[in-house]
Design goal:
Length: about 350
């Protein structure tokens, strides 16, 4: 490409970025759930916060820009500082930006967050997507080579700020703006402030290995990002459907009425029960198919899970979920057959 052409193209994409950003002001808002418990929105991400006379206990900060907005809203409306930030898990799109609250808050997360946030280690190869970006084939993605999510969040991937992203930085994830927890726990942890309580309960390995549900016993509410969903199927069932069943079983064992989520709709205890039932139905359905000697393709064509047809993602993820459960069950069957 001639230099002039590339400069014009670069300018065009800059203009596109600026006008695109201006056209899409984030959708933000705060709604009261019950008592002094609130749910706050940043586009399709949500967090929750509990106001007490001594300060606010909040969950995920989401990102710096939203955090600054929320901090100002809380100061104006409630005239108390944020005293606790309780992380649901480490993922960049929920946990970034906490530094905004670092002047007044203690940060609490599951112990596994620390390992996830540790500096990039080892020398893993680039992912398949990143290999496609690596035009000069030096095993790294330069800023100019990056596309998609790596381009959008380049600085969040680039842990050592050397303007190239390595395989280890990609494996660590775009979490460079996640403020580390100052307090960690293994099974459960209760925060008390101004006569209020919030308990964090570890959810095991579903989705990420550092996920917790927040339980507000007096408000009879739970908050979970990515694991608890209301009329919406999980994005994936990693690492196993069993881990997901364990996590949703832990959530459903709590006493609550309000099921608050990190994405999309909020709901009730019935919705949390539905989310667990979906996982059980897909598990037993796939197991029955395998037992009847059906192939994955046949199971995908017959196990329609019609009860969840109205759920977001049913049409786009049902077959992938069946494939994931099939692979897990086949793996287990193979392992147990070997020991029999
Ligand atoms: Zn996540």
């Amino acid at each position: 490409m001639r230099p002039f052409t590339s400069i014009v193209l670069a300018l065009c994409s800059l203009v596109g970025l600026v006008s695109g950003a201006a056209a899409q002001a984030p959708v933000r808002g705060i709604v009261n759930i019950t008592g002094q418990l609130y749910r706050a929105q940043n586009n399709n991400h949500y967090t929750v916060f509990l106001v007490t006379p001594e300060g606010v206990i909040m969950s995920d900060p989401i990102n710096r820009d939203f955090g600054r907005w929320l901090k100002a809203e809380i100061a104006t409306r409630f005239k108390v500082p944020v005293r606790y930030v309780l992380y649901t898990h480490r993922d960049w799109d929920h946990a970034s930006g906490g530094v905004v609250f670092a002047d007044t808050a203690e940060f609490v997360g599951h112990r596994n967050m620390l390992a996830a946030l540790a500096p990039p280690a080892g020398n893993p190869p680039l992912t398949a997507d990143a290999v496609k970006m690596d035009a000069n084939r030096n095993g790294l993605v330069e800023r100019a080579e990056a596309t998609g999510g790596i381009a959008d969040r380049f600085a969040l991937f680039d842990y050592n700020r050397d303007d190239v992203v390595s395989g280890a930085e990609i494996a660590r994830g775009s979490i460079s703006d996640v403020h580390p927890p100052t307090t960690t726990f293994t099974d459960r942890h209760t925060v008390t402030l101004g006569g209020k309580r919030v308990t964090m309960i570890y959810l095991g390995t579903a989705h990420a290995d550092d996920s917790s549900v927040l339980h507000f016993p007096d408000e009879r509410a739970v908050f979970s990002a990515d694991i608890l969903q209301v009329r919406r199927l999980p994005g994936g069932l990693a690492p196993t459907v069993g881990a997901w069943i364990d996590a949703l079983t832990t959530i459903n064992a709590l006493d609550f009425e309000h099921a608050l989520t990190g994405h999309a709709l909020a709901g009730t205890k019935k919705d949390a029960a539905d989310a667990l039932r979906y996982l059980q139905d897909i598990s037993t359905g796939v197991a029955a198919g395998i037992g009847a000697g059906r192939s994955l393709d046949e199971i995908q064509k017959t196990l329609m899970l019609e009860a969840y047809k109205g759920f977001e993602r049913w049409d786009t993820t049902r077959e992938a979920h069946i494939a994931a459960v099939y692979a897990t069950l086949k793996g287990n069957l193979g392992a147990s057959a070997g020991t029999r």
